[in-house]
Amino acid sequence: MVGRDSVEPLAVNVCKAFTLGIDVPSRKMETHTCRLMPRSAPLFAALLTLPFVAISTARGDAAAELASFSVFPKVDLAQLSKGDAKPVRGGSAGPRYLSVQTVYVAPFPPAELLAKMRGWNPARHPELKVYLHIDSGTNFSALQNAPDNSAVRYLTNATSQRSSDLQLSAAEMKLLPGENFASVWTKILSGRAQSGISSQPPYDNTTPPVRPGEELNGLLGSQEKIRKQFSGLLSGGKSGMYWELLSVDEQGVLTLGTFSSRTGGGGTIQTANTRYYASGGYYAGVTLHQLWPVQVEGRASTLVWRGDMISSASVASLRGIERIAAESTMIKDISRVVSFFRRDTGSVR
Amino acid sequence: MKKSLRLLGLSLALVATHSFAEMLEAPVDDGDIDPLAFEFDFHGSFIGGADVKRQTLEITDFTEQNYLGRVLILPRTKVGILRLGAEYEIYDFDLPAGVQVPNRLQSAALIIGLDTKLSDSLLVRVEAKPGYYSGRDFEGQDFNVPFIMGGTYLYSSTLQFVFGIAVDLEAQYPVLPGGGFRWKFAPQWVLNATAPTPRLEYEVNRALTLYAGADIRWKNFRVDNDFVGDPGDPGDLNNAILSYSEIRTGGGVIWKIGEACKLTVEGGYLPYREFDYHRTNVRYESEGGAPYGSISLRASF
To answer: Which chain A residues are Cβ-neighbours of B28 within 8 angstroms?
Structure first.
């Protein structure tokens, strides 16, 4: 386990390094840096907030860094390694937003865990109601063999009836109903996949029209500490595209996403799973992971932080009790997903 | 987990509008959003001519107007979400003079409650409505404090169970259990089998929902001290406790106006109503039903 004792001397060293123009690893270290910096160096202070400081090294105190941007002020790695994941409400500063944060320990190093994350397919679990998961942003041929169930039939009917519930642009609405379900959605999804996240056409069926890219910015902007922590990854990093056919609240939804990852110093890894288009159910969503290498009982392990954020029209109308019920439901859903992943990948000790 | 996030059914339709069906919530202290919310409700209904009868005594062809207004402030605290507000409800009956049923029943009460959660699956509500439950005039002896306690078990985003009790010491049965379940069993269908408003709902689209079901109403009032009704039979009804109950069955349309407002228009048939002075064994029951129509507006900010 990375001990807390290692933080202080490292921070001082980093401060010295920074004055020579070398990168600063973590927010924890920022605190010390600021304290030690001469008053005549305001520029340095400004630079400390730049994105590139976000990824920490394994030499830092993982738990302290976790505390610096998450809702987990304190974690006991030994306890976490023996127990279930701990999803909790993540806090969200937007009427349409919900977020959940989860922390757990996986019994293998970050690189191995990342490989397992890349290989895991939720469609293997009928309970999760992910009917298709395809790692491609160009091949939508699986739509021709979409499963026949009530959720998919709902989407098929909505398509043929040009339902205003579909989140499409005005130009895409003109494509409906199209030759058939597969062909029309192949056109729509291909076009959106080519557009990229920031240039996604708006959902013109909503009032006012919603731009998924702006929703993603809003989600991350509403959680400044997390945005800073992941800004390096979100502004770059290797990414791959995928699409899914799934059920949201028993209604079929087609979604487009990207998965990106970035390795930091000391074996830390960050990942971002960005759902930048959904035909219904929600506007946009993002799942972030931060993986720290830690030693637990002498074994190379990973401290995992997961943050799920979603923007949904349905959430916007919820107040008080109903909103918390939705948050609780999201926590349960995330908990279920994490449990399946950990069970499938042997992440449970 | 690159993929997944089979996101949330969001159980977004924990929509029931009455006590048991609303029992949800959670204590969160990172109140970075919605530290304060407001709810406004207005409901108005008209019930056509109908009769009630007690043995040989009959009151014929009278109509009813019912209005309810409620305002709630919902501050989020460390222990949960408080429910603080006020409610006024009135039942006006178009009755001839001298009958044993008052032509007005009304209540004005504060609302003091708490929604909190015991776990991510179990949300609870405690709510009291101290106030005056009266006939035409509000009098000190009309003061009463009915309250409810209950919870919702969130089994999944598509299935929830609701349970609880309603306590009213002035009632014939001071403690009444209630509850049910809400099940989204198909993409556009929800069976909201929760007392007192069991419903089958069909979501036409994001903004429009149709439903059919029942509304079981039950409330206790103390009639005025100068209310005599028919003094000869069976005796003095002044200051008596009157339990008024009615069952409405019908269908309606819920129109979601923007993110904050819902307008509901409902129509149907009232098959049963009862005026019960349960402490003096004077009870008038419906003799045939009546059509009704209602309109409701709820705004949340």
So the answer is: 89, 324, 327
Count Cβ atoms within 10 A of the Cβ of residue B169 and give its class: 0-12 exposed, 13-18 middle, 19 or more buried: exposed
CB A224 within 8 A of CB A216: no
Q: Which residue of B has its CA nearest to A333?
A: B8
At a CB cut-off of 8 Å and minimum separation 6, what does B33 contact? A91, A92, A93, A94, A95, A97
CA A202 – CA A213 distance, rounded (Å): 9
DSSP H/E element including A104:
strand A97-106
Chain B: give the shortest CA distance to residue A2, in Å.
Answer: 25
Question: Do A330 and B205 count as a contact with CB atoms less than 8 A apart?
Answer: no
Contacts of A319 in chain B (CB under 8 A): 34, 37-39, 74, 300-301
Confidence at residue A40, expressed as pLDDT on a 0 to 100 scale: 33
ipTM reported for the complex, 2 dp: 0.74
CB contact under 8 A, A328 and B120: yes
B260 close to B299: Cβ distance less than 8 angstroms: yes
Measure CA B286 to chain center: 21
Q: What's the pTM value of the predicted model, to 2 decimals?
A: 0.78
Q: Do B10 and A326 touch (CB under 8 A)?
A: yes
In one-letter notation, the amino acid at residue A231 is S
CA A218 to chain centre: 14
Beta carbons of A164 and B206 less than 8 Å apart: yes
Q: How far apart are CA B11 and CA B13, in angstroms?
A: 5
Q: How far is B134 from B109, CA to CA, in rounded Å?
A: 11
Task: Give the pLDDT confidence score for residue B218 in this predicted structure.
Answer: 92
A324: nearest CB among B5, B26, B301? B26
**Residue A250 is nearest to which of B39, B184, B256, comparing CB atoms?**
B184
What sign does the dihedral A236-A240-A243-A248 (CA atoms) show? negative
What is the DSSP code (8-state) at residue B228? -
- Alpha carbon A337 to its chain centroid, in Å, reads 13
Phi, psi dihedral angles at B34 (to 5 degrees): 50, 50
Contacts of B22 in chain A (CB under 8 A): 321
Q: Are A91 and B4 inside 8 Å of each other by CB?
A: no
Using DSSP bridges, classify how beta strands B261-277 and B282-286 pair: parallel, antiparallel or unpaired.
Answer: antiparallel
Which are the contacts of A171, defined by CB distance < 8 A and separation ≥ 6? Answer: A201
- For A44, other C-beta atoms within 10 Å of its C-beta total 17
pLDDT at B77: 87
- Secondary structure of residue A135 in the 3-state scheme: coil
Chain A residues whose CB is inside 8 A of the B38 CB are 319
Q: What is the DSSP letter of B118?
A: S
> Rounded mean pLDDT of B24-43?
62
Residues of chain A with pLDDT under 50: 1-60
In the structure encoding, which two tokens stand for residue B172, read together?
């014939």
What single DSSP character describes residue A145? G
HEC string of B187-216?
A: CCEEEEEECCCCEEEEEEECCEEEEEEEEE
Q: Which of helix, strand or coil describes residue A151?
A: helix
C-beta of residue B183 within 8 angstroms of C-beta of residue B191: yes
Q: What strand order describes the sheet that includes A299-311?
A: A88-89, A97-106, A299-311, A284-296, A269-278, A251-263, A238-248, A130-134
